UniProtKB/TrEMBL annotation:
It comes from Chryseobacterium paridis. Keywords: Lipoprotein. The keyword rRNA-binding does not apply. This is SusD/RagB family nutrient-binding outer membrane lipoprotein. It comes from the Bacteria. SUPFAM superfamilies: TPR-like (SSF48452).
Amino acid sequence: MKNIIKISLMSACIGLGLSSCQSDLTSLNDDPKHPAILPSENLLATAMYQSSYYIDNPSVNFNNYRFFTQQWAETQYPDETQYNLVTRNQPRNHFNRMYVYSINNLRQAKVNLKNEVETDDIRTNKLATLEIEEIFIWENLVDTYGDVPYSEAFKPDEILTPKYDDAKTIYLDLIKRINDAIVAIKPAAKGYAPPVGATNSGDLVYSGDMTKWKKFANSIKLRLGMNLADVDPVLAKTTVESAIAAGVISSDDDAYKFKYDGGTFSNPVFDNLVASNRNDFLPSELVVNTMKTLSDPRMDIWFTKVGGVYKGGVFGELNDPYTNFSQLSSYFRSATAASNLLSYAEVAFLKAEAAARNYSAGGTAVDLYASAITESMRENGVSVANTTAYLAANPYNAVNWKQSIGVQAWLAMFNKGFASWNFTRRLDSPTLVNPPKSNIASVPYRMPYSDQEYVLNGANVKAAASKIGGDKATTKLFWDKF
């Protein structure tokens, strides 16, 4: 971990073009135009970009969330849809992006913020911003791997080989930390807001609007609480209800969306589907056939037709030529499309699920289910008339609410791989069938640990693997009980 953190600091400097991060024995060559100590807003911006881009990245070299939920199929090679997670080192790549390029920058930002001139309220809000962003990434790490280095991580001068903390213990601490951050926010003051005359700041999502950061924080808390529903229903209920009562994301304008300019930074789906000039990915047969059965109007927006019909790729198989199948439409191919990592639609489905579990969620399960679908349709440009017809044809099923909400949330989270994976694991719907040529015994429930950890932190990662029941993709997380 110490070596990784050292690499991180240099990588952050290189990424920002700050050559003066390299130090010499004296200060004679210091360049005042390129500070050796990075402003906290630069570190925040780097962390936000790295985490957003790589959580949303569909590359076969990274998280593979879209394959874990079987929403995308492959054409050129089926290795990733056959759940080969070793050849390309996806576990290592995602682990490093979240720890090294994301959380490490936020930790350093907190240190640097202490020495920056600022009013008390703005400093408090900036610290809350850094804390909420860090918690957001920790949740991704825990929900991807399970037990991970936490309490002893990022202490390279004290601990070279950090222990792996119990995942539920981390969850409990994240809930405490997010509660503290929410209370600390000063809504009347700004956070990382753009300077006078500027349009951008280190906060590349909310531009220092602390009201939106508070809604985002409560929405993270809602997600954490819902994941606890089957393993700790009492804590889940209190966590979820308090988050909703305090105010979660309530419109698309509140959503956590990292926006790309299409020049310096481009959407990761664009990079993999257009800029790379690769024809590797198709909507899966499972997605297309499910949407056909439900007469889902989003198909007309999301996919192309082949021979006048929609035809999905066979998951886990080497498909016929790319042109023989429906393809992802131009809707997903924009360089400036935002990575919508905690959307209003997701929050709406979480509230519907909360109501189905008899939590106080601000409405009935029937009404919240309809609201969630309506928001997904609106988000994707479906007309009111078509939305009304879809709801009439696919009403809420209270008897089998997990399937009812699960299938609809899975569809609504198409191209939001991590969010979709949480729903499919928690609700076990739709049913995902392990492909015949799979490299593992079932569909993935977690990402195996980074292979580098077995070299740099061997004793601790082996102990963690033993504790959770084996470092396998088929080992369920602590909250995935059914």
